[in-house]
Amino acid sequence: MSSTGQVDRTGYAALRSVLRIRPFRRLWIVLGAASYGDWLGLLATSIFAADQVEGSTAKGAAFGTVIAVRLLPALVLGPLAGVFADRFDRRWTMVICDVLRFLLFASIPLVAILGASGGVVVGWATVATFLIETITLLWIPAKEAAVPNLIPRARLEMANQLTLITTYGITPVLAALSIAVLDASVRAATGGVVPSWSEPAQLALWFNALSRLATALVVAFGIKEISDGQADRDARTEQSMLRQFKEGWRFIGHTPLVRGLVLGIFGAFAGGGIVIGTARFFAASLGAGDAAFYLLFGAIFVGLAIGIGGGPMIVRDLSRRRWFGMSIVLASASVLALAFAIHLSMAMLGAVLVGAGAGMAFLAGTTLLGGEIADEVRGRVFAVVQIGTRLVLIFAIALSSLLVGVGGSRELRIADLGISISSTRLLLLAAGLAGIFAGISAFGQMDDKKGVPVLADLWGSMRGRPLTPAEPFVSTGLFVVFEGGEGAGKSTQVTRLAETLGGQGREVVTTREPGATPVGQRIRALVLGAPGSDTPSPRAEALLYAADRAHHVATVVRPALVRGAVVVSDRYVDSSLAYQGAGRTLPVDEVSWLSSWATGGLKPDLVVLLDVEPRVGLSRVAARGEETDHVEAESLAFHERVRYAFLDLAAADPKRYLVLDASRPADEIAATVARRVEEMLVDPSAIVHPAPAKQPDTSVQPELSDAELVTMEQPR
Ligand SMILES: Nc1ncnc2c1ncn2[C@@H]1O[C@H](COP(=O)(O)OP(=O)(O)O)[C@@H](O)[C@H]1O
Ligand SMILES: Cc1cn([C@H]2C[C@H](O)[C@@H](COP(=O)(O)OP(=O)(O)O)O2)c(=O)[nH]c1=O
To answer: Strand locations in 297-367, DSSP E?
Structure first.
């Protein structure tokens, strides 16, 4: 288990070690700026195009078309562009691409300034966007291939997380916020009469253009290392990207885990895309203006940043497969909730959650793809995911904004109820439902902890004590445990019950804790020495009882239950909860977790609690005249805490407990117990064996020393 402190320290050290690598640091900074520009540009081109035409349908179509144009090149040219990018020097490929993108971005507002008509402006914006996207497809593989050459393998994941947070978390938020601020301040400064060159959308496009120029310059003159490590360029040209791309798809199609992952990631992004695509009309349906749209847009990406950056710290050791499915359900349920939002603040919260879910799904998915896919195919699968998420996101934005544009002006009024349903909300509703379905089925397909309750698992992981499945076994027998304080009469009753059942010809295994096995005998000698002998500390004592229990269950109890025997044990888990927990005042939940781990989740079918006043019990023990052990020698208060712990446990689960007054005659007690057990044995198949299990999940993170990290700086 990792404490929060450890997680933070390793995370921070990893971050520093990645940023210490100069070429990567430069690339990251410049890519961040470029990504900020791109998001500004994406928002700007869409709004820009929509501003050029009148009417909600036309606006929706214009908004959608510009975005849709972004997905066409990837669909058609994706694989071929990869081949191109692999053939030439990566640094110069990046530089030339960025110079071209600079020119194209700048041309969009330029055409408007030159006084072209609305239609021409939209037309050119569309063509330019198409060209930009095509160039981007050449640029991405060059960049992706360059990054691994800049940093050591062990730091790749951290680098990816950093890049993800920057591209999908930080820069989009900044972009949305700055365009909202820009919009407000330009309008305030000009008193509403905005000269066309200073329209926020146009300013954003100019910035986008300049950020690309800056990237080109930095890559050309500041990160010469990108040209290195490409010595085997000739060898790579032999394997076409088209073939690589195809192989990637075939692998995805044939591997269920990967298929589920990829579909899940796409699904989450589709949900996010629909929210973005409908956001404008959704904002309008909330009675809020354009600023609300930017806020919603920003909220999604704040959520993404929270999910990617903070998700792992929150869920800690939760199974990544489960986290993945849960995240998709979270994102989809939030989309669903958006459909019912009646106020902007509700919508903002929903949007943050949509982003958080999508971000966590993306991170969990990426981690799983990295960890569970063989090295030889990993690159291609990542490529498919990357191009795929782009396509899905853009497609979802375009399609939903188009649909909403068409239906946005229509409102369905439900007779006198005063409820109006817009197409926006219906779309969100449908998307949410579909997403929840996808998330649950992805969860089911790849669940690695079947049988562990989902919410308990999540809660346990968040608190740092993750659960794992019960050890699989089928009990055909009956597990009866006697619990109670000292001298309650447990040994007496165990013997009586065994005699009764044995007399009926049943196989009975009587046993006890601690000390039923040879190993247990040695443990018993350690924990139950005479008072004054070397006694173990409370935690050591708890571990010793758990150790005895683990061995006892594995070698005696479980095999007997599998055979179909009735197992009657003098003490079990509850004794640890009562003595080590309540008695020694160790945290009861921790002791419980320890015992559950030891037993693999095995719970008794029936616990007979012989309740006795400590004074009475202890006097019976004393009457036996044997030497007292150090537990018996504990204070009366100790034994009282133990007694009430037993009673509390019984009260919490009354069906599984038979609480009897141990001061009654032994015969009476024996008869009551025998009746209850015989009832259960009449129809053994009707016995519902309880069995959830808990186990720790240790994830060891190897840490490099600072000295090792420094040497990773490439000497130049
Ligand atoms: N119901 C009872 N009433 C009175 N004395 C009892 C009863 N059951 C057991 N005893 C006596 O109390 C003492 C402790 O009983 P034992 O079965 O060894 O308890 P435990 O195993 O719970 O310590 C024994 O001397 C036993 O004969
Ligand atoms: C099984 C178990 C026993 N104990 C203690 C309670 C008892 O004092 C002691 C041994 O129990 P037991 O053999 O039942 O002694 P007695 O018959 O005298 O009651 O071990 C724990 O503290 N934790 C445990 O988990």
So the answer is: none
- Tell me how far CA of residue 271 lies from CA of 252, 292, 358, 400, in angstroms: 22, 19, 8, 10
Quick check: CB of 662 below 6 Å from ligand 2? no
How many CB atoms are located within 10 Å of the residue 236 CB?
15
Within a domain: 364: yes
For residue 362, the number of C-alpha atoms closer than 13 Å in the C-beta half-sphere is: 35
The pLDDT-based confidence of 96 (bands split at 50, 70, 90) is very high
Residue 59 annotated as lining a ligand binding site: no
Q: What tokens were used for 263?
A: 């579909």
ipTM: 0.96
Number of structural domains in the chain: 3
Q: Please indicate whether residue 487, judged by its CB atom, sits closer than 6 Å to ligand 1.
A: yes
Ligand 1 lined by 574 (C-beta under 6 Å): no
pLDDT tens, residue by residue, 433-489: 988 988 988 888 788 777 778 888 888 778 776 666 666 677 789 999 999 999 999
What is the CA(620)–ligand 1 centre distance, in A?
Answer: 7
Q: Are residues 413 and 516 in the same domain?
A: no
Q: Is 488 annotated as a binding residue?
A: yes
Residue nearest to atom 7 of ligand 2 (CA): 631
**Residue 140 exposure: Cα atoms within 13 Å on the Cβ side:** 21
* 422: helix, strand or coil: strand
Q: Please state, in angstroms and as integers, the Cα–Cα distance from residue 696 to each residue in 27, 218, 238, 496, 619, following that order.
A: 40, 48, 48, 39, 41
101 located within any domain? yes
On whether both 446 and 322 belong to a single domain, the answer is yes
Does any ligand 2 atom lie closer than 6 A to the CB of residue 105?
no
Residue 606 vs residues 479, 562, 664, 681: alpha-carbon distances, Å: 7, 17, 20, 12
CATH number at residue 287: 1.20.1250.20
CA of 644 to the centre of ligand 2 (A): 16
Taking the model in full, what pTM does it have?
Answer: 0.56
Domain membership flag for residue 158: yes
CA–CA separation, 441 and 444 (whole Å): 5
What is the C-alpha to C-alpha distance for residues 16 and 677, in angstroms, rounded to an integer? 63
Ligand 1: residue whose CA is nearest its atom 6: 489
Whether 390 is in a domain gets the answer no
Q: What are phi and psi of 657, to 5 degrees?
A: -115, 145
Q: Is 379 annotated as a binding residue?
A: no
Q: Both 405 and 540 in a single domain?
A: no
Residue 551 phi, psi (nearest 5): -70, -40
CA distance between the termini of the chain:
41
Tell me which residue has its CA closest to atom 9 in ligand 1: 489
Residue indicated by tokens 């300013």? 203
- The CATH number assigned to the domain holding 535 equals 3.40.50.300
Lowest average pLDDT, out of 454-468, 573-587, 683-697, goes to 683-697
Segments forming the whole domain that contains residue 134? 16-236
| Cα–Cα distance list, 414 to 198, 389, 419, 429 (Å) | 44, 38, 6, 17
Contact 449, 322 (CB under 8 A): yes
Do the annotations mark residue 486 as ligand-binding? Answer: yes
Same domain, 521 and 648: yes
Are 229 and 249 contained in the same domain? no
Report how far residue 93's alpha carbon sits from residue 412's, in angstroms, rounded to the nearest whole number.
53
